[in-house]
Amino acid sequence: MNAETSPILRIESVAKNFGPVVAVDGVxxxxxxxxxxxxxxxxxxxxxxxxxxxxxxxxxxAGRILLEGRDISPLPPEKRPxxxxxxSYALFPHMTVRQNLCYGLEMERLDKAEIRRxxxxxxxxxxxxxxxxxxxxxxxxxxxxxxxxxxxxxxxPKVLLLDEPLGALxxxxxxxxxxELKRMQNEAGIxxxxxxxxxxxxxxxxxxxxxxxxxxxxxxxxxxxxxxxPADRFVANFIGVMNFIDGRVTEDRVFExxxxxxxxxxxxxxxxxxxxxxxxxxxxxxxxxxxxxxxDIAYHGLDRVLHVKTPAAPVPxxxxxxxxxxxxYQVGDALSLKIDPARCRLFAGGGAGAGx
Amino acid sequence: MSFNAxxxxxxxxxxxxxxxxxxxxxxxxxxxxxxxxxxVWGGIEYTFTLENFARVxxxxxxxxxxxxxxxxxxxxxxxxxxxxxxxxAISRAPxxxxxxxxxxxxxxxxxxxxxxxxxxxxxxxxxxxxxxxxRSFGYTGEPLSLLYTEAAVITGLVYNYLPFVILAIYxxxxxxxxxxxxxxxxxxxxxxxxFFRVTLPLSLPGVAAGGVFVxxxxxxxxxxxxLLGGGRFQMVGNLVYDQFLTANxxxxxxxxxxxxxxxxxxxxxxxxxxxxxxxGESREAQA
Lengths: 356, 287
Prior knowledge:
Number of strands of chain B: 2
Radius of gyration of chain B: 23 Å
Helix content of chain B: over 70%
Helix content of chain A: 10-25%
Structural class of chain B: mainly alpha
Number of helices of chain B: 12
Shape of chain B: globular
Radius of gyration of chain A: 24 Å
Oligomer: heterodimer
Largest sheet of chain B: 2 strands, antiparallel
């Protein structure tokens, strides 16, 4: 087996319940070496509990956590070669930036010169050298975030865990730090496992991601796989923008909804939901396929999103059109929509199941 | 001056007025006595003198001062050693249970200070509960002289001021961000090293506040040494009490009081400085 693709971290049917509350329900995930992996889900989905089990602050009720093939679930946090970057950063307020970075290495009982060398090196790569003697209270949010990251990185963990690392930053800084984190992960050559509720953040940063809901793993894959082929209606809705049209598949493989008939392949007859991304719906001349009127237009700079009222769905469908050039649209305009069935997902019934 | 800046001052006015009228003015009056001579039949003879302060420095009284300081310091140390684990345990208890535990910690305050001190006399005397219990366990020797010892005074002081220390330490511990302790574990420190390098340093402002409180209240105390020390252990408080009420030497009593107040003010000032320096850190720690 190739070292690039062997799992460094294997989560094996891990479950956790707090009394009668099931926080994590039999989740299995493989995280590969040098991967930027995201645990994504709405709040209360169990992603933070899962991360805390990886760090050692919670013990799984069932299942095992293997690091390089070794079961680490019985080990206390201080014995695990993983480090966690806390959401609150948890910088020691009575220590300077340098002392915060030294702390973890002093615990490994390294000699003074070695500690100094590694701390200096890490402060240089994270741009913290000039803040070495400051206390955390004298730092800005972005600087604290870098110290928290540096304090974990200087330990050279096998896996770095990050709990909502960008949650406390404003939008501009967050976008800058997303790329920064990715660059640092690349340079350090360390596997990152990040917890986030922000699907956009996961799409931008992650090599692969796992979507959790109510303690269960719904789907695991690359951002492209999940965006293009969501496993169920929840994932489809959670990642990016998705239009849903409820209807039914007839015996002769045609998806039918009010005002819409679409030939589909590989679909079982019965009630079904068609899921189409705004960029996979094209605007045609009136008379073609699904007729509608523009209810709203949202300008996004590069493109415009038309909210089109149709008989097929109770909420207006979102359709993405280029902002520059092309047709000038106005609210109230009648138009017709062309949906490309090859780029759509078809979910049987109201919930899980795939087709299209 | 802006409206927003004056308003807090206005809000503080009633409190400041109260303190000025009923505390600062009487204190200054009494202190001013220290600069006059004692009347032949007690009272004050308004002739300026510094003799009273010279007497305070007399080895006899200086010794009582030092003795009081030693007793107060011992009391403070013991109170902190007992209060810290208790406060730590309460702060680590489930959130729902903490108010109940705190309630039990301050329960003694619901009874009168004198009554609590008399209760200790009942416990400690030669026919008291402790000696009776020893006898029922088969001890046949001479009853132990527990009462009227320095240990009895210290026990009484520790008992009376313990809740203050528990509250002070608890309030800093409960506001510490638990993720700091987790971060320490995550970085490779076991529970013991985490305590000594993170928890303890960050809770020192609470320890200092509780400690200064106990020290200041203990060094000036006169009820506990009078009742549990039986008058054999004179502390500064008793000395001041005696000068005013027995010896009728108000000027000397005032000079002793002044010395005591200066000692306390210096201590409080040092503590306030230490807390101000640490408060930035604890604000950070509560994030």
